[in-house]
Amino acid sequence: MSATDDLTKAQAQFAAGHLRRALRAGWLAAETALLRGDADVLRSLVELATQIAAAANGGVAKEASRLESYCRHCLDASGGSVESRAITARLSRIRKATRACPDCKAQIPEDARVCQHCGYRDDSTARQVP
């Protein structure tokens, strides 16, 4: 299903008074729009989430506010383009340096003293205190 289809479903559920269902479809639309870089759907979801939050109370209103905030943050302030690719690219680059475990050869953090795979203890990575 496309982001536009999910958005249309969410709008129909909202029009029918099914706020939880509208919210659920809205989250699906947001996920699909984010993956496809569809800023128009995200902008429409901001409006829909605002309407749901105004019509609902309790947990549904809070969740609608979360959806609105999420969609707003996914839109780049510099022109309304979707920032998702930049976010995922940044997250994928945030990696600690790794090294191979001397015993099982699995990749472990460079500063690890114990291998999480085989339990090998490597005391040579401990800091030397002068």
Find the count of extended strands (DSSP E, 2+ residues). 2
Classify the secondary structure makeup into a structural class. mainly alpha
Helicity range: 55-70%
The helix/strand order is: HHHHHEE
* Unreliably modeled segments: none
Backbone shape: elongated
In spatial order, strands of the major sheet run: 1-2
Return the average pLDDT rounded to an integer: 83
Q: Tell me the span between the first and last alpha carbons.
A: 62 Å
Number of domains: 2
Number of helices: 5
Radius of gyration: 22 Å
Largest sheet: 2 strands, antiparallel
Which features does this protein show?
elongated; 2 domains; mainly alpha; 130 residues; 58% helix; single chain
Care to describe what's here?
The protein is mainly α. The chain has five helices and two strands; from the N terminus they run αααααββ. α2 packs antiparallel against α3 (39-55). The relative contact order is 0.10.
